[in-house]
Specification:
Layout (H helix, E strand, L loop, with lengths): L1 H21 L9 E6 L2 E5 L2 E10 L2 E5 L4 E6 L6 E2 L4 E5 L2 H57 L5 H55 L1 E3 L4 E3 L9 E2 L8 E6 L4 E8 H12 L12 E6 L7 E8 L9 E8 L11 E7 L4 E6 L5 E3 L2 E7 L5 E5 L1 E6 L2 E6 L7 E4 L10 E5 L46 H4 L10
Parallel strand pairs: 1-24
Antiparallel strand pairs: 1-23, 2-17, 3-12, 3-16, 4-11, 5-7, 5-10, 6-9, 7-8, 9-11, 12-15, 13-14, 13-16, 14-15, 17-22, 18-19, 19-20, 21-22
Length: 475
Amino acid sequence: MKFGLALILASATVVAGCGSEATPTGPTPGATPVVASKPIVMPIVEWDEYTGRFDAINSVEIRSRVGGYLQSTHFEEGQMVSSGDLLAIIDPRPFRAEVNAARARLEEANAGLKEAQSVLRQTEAEKADAEAQLSLATSRLERAQALARQRAISDEEVDVRRSETQQATASFEAANAKIESSKAAIATSEAAIETAKANLQLAELNLQYTEVRAPITGLISRRNVTEGNLISGGSETSTLLTTIVSVSPIHIYFDANEQEFLKYVRLAKAGKRESSRNVKNPVFVSLIDEQGYPHQGHMDFVDNQIDPNTGTMRGRAILPNDDGLLTPGLFAKVRLPGSGRYDAVMVPDAAIISDQSEKYVYVVDGESTLHRQTVELGPISHGLRIVRAGLDGSETVVTSGLQKIFEGAKVAAKIESIEAKQSSLPDNYKPVPEDQWLTRGPAPAPYGVHSNNSMYAEPIAMEERFPLAGKERVQ
């Protein structure tokens, strides 16, 4: 009996010992395990994002300056053309005939001037003769009158001398009148010459306009009219032959709402970010199928008023497009500096909790107790959320395990570091210097101008462009 009791006590002791060894040593009773981190504080630039649309800097509708039959076209549809390239020819024969006729009228006017000048010289000689005759007749009359007072000659002789004087005076006055008439004829001939010159210039211009040339370099569209058709010209309703759009550089337009516009204005007044009206701030652009922002340009224009229909301010950037990838009409993402460089406090977006309109995070204090901290948020940068107000970077913020905690709860925080992702946008920027500005390029060249992409192209001589237009070629 004693042996059985001793065995029972020994078994109970063994069981009690096993139970004591299996008891775990865990965290403080009631503490919830969470992951927490200190916010990252790093210098960044906020890049605002907009949706933009590309538009060609120059877009030209090709219309003929003169009407007639379309003789031929000289371009490949959808291909690049250079400024000054021949695109089409209007039948030049009627215009060539008009040039020859205008040149003949000019020669006729020159001949009329020479004739009027010859008449003037003849009339001036007649005036000199009449003046001499008048002087002689006047002298004879004076002598006759002196002799008549002495009764040396008869009154009849005096009357004869007086008649001669009157005839000489009349001849002199007639010569003066003929001189004035000759001068008027010369003026008329000179005016006729200027008119003939103007008509010749107009005829030569019209002959030049029979060759329709590309006013800009760019991509040409399809033919709207084929050879042999009669087209109208010389007005905005003239027959549309085709269109050309420039390729490089290219514009992209985007709109900022009133709040964003006011932000830029206030940043400029505070000296934190220069206005794009005054400097060429850089922009980065990404197409719909691209990663990152591989296309870089700069601001080119900011409109002068808010659009009353949309409540937005129109902005424009300019980008190089040497490979022609950026096509007018495409949509793209545009990133514009929305701040100056500053030290930003950033946390993972998962650490942010929403309570209706309020945003907050849980901060672990020194006694492993949570308290709720309201924050004001900014955009995402480097994969993290910018905290504009509420945190200074020294706090410990819960980033994981938020579903099981509440304000005042005890937690067992596992501290992990936050890593910022590499950004495709720079963390600093400067306005683009003037020597790196992209320009709109030369203005469209007028018709009849050589293509050399120069702002000051030389006109093409008529003899070079239309050798059959000379008078020696008249048939």
